[in-house]
Design goal:
Helix content: under 10%
Low-confidence stretches: 123-127
Largest sheet: 8 strands, antiparallel
Radius of gyration: 14 Å
Structural class: mainly beta
Oligomer: single chain
Distance between the termini: 20 Å
Length: 130
C-alpha cells in the first residue's frame, strides 16, 4: 500500500473522477487500547479511467485514528458525491459526506495520523508528479 500524500491524492482524484460517483462497499474498524494502532479501512468502488469497464476499487486504510463519526439515519453514506480531504498535523481528515446542511455535522468523517491506499486494477502504478 502507498502512503497518501498531496501529490498521490491529486493523482487518485484525477484517476477516479474526484470520487464523485462511487459506492462504499465495506467499512472495517479495528480499535485497540493503543491509539496509534486504531484503524479504519474503507473499501470503495469508483469510476476508474484505467479500468477496461470504467470501474475500479480503492482501499483506504486510516491508521492512528483520532476521529471517527458515522451516522446512518435519514440518509445514506453508501453512494458518495466526492470526498473532501484536509491535511492535518500530522495526517489527514476525510469527509465522505461533504455535502450537508450548513451548521450540521458530516454524517461520515475520519481523521487519522496516517492514510495508506491501494487502487485496482493496478496495471499501472499511480503516477505522482515530480
Amino acid at each position: 500500500m502507498d502512503n497518501l500524500t498531496e501529490d498521490a491524492l491529486q493523482a487518485l482524484n484525477d484517476r477516479h473522477a474526484k470520487f464523485e460517483d462511487c459506492l462504499i462497499r465495506r467499512v472495517t474498524l479495528a480499535f485497540t487500547a493503543t491509539p496509534q494502532w486504531r484503524q479504519v479501512t474503507v473499501e470503495i468502488e469508483a469510476k476508474d479511467n484505467r479500468a477496461a469497464d470504467g470501474w475500479g476499487q480503492v482501499l483506504f486504510e486510516f491508521r492512528g485514528v483520532t476521529l471517527f463519526h458515522l451516522l446512518e439515519a435519514h440518509t445514506t453514506n453508501v453512494v458518495l458525491g466526492g470526498i473532501e480531504w484536509t491535511p492535518t498535523a500530522p495526517g489527514w481528515k476525510a469527509d465522505f459526506s461533504p455535502v450537508h446542511s450548513e451548521g450540521s455535522l458530516s454524517t461520515f468523517i475520519i481523521e487519522a495520523q496516517e492514510v495508506r491506499f491501494r487502487s485496482t486494477p493496478d496495471s499501472e502504478p499511480v503516477q505522482i508528479a515530480p
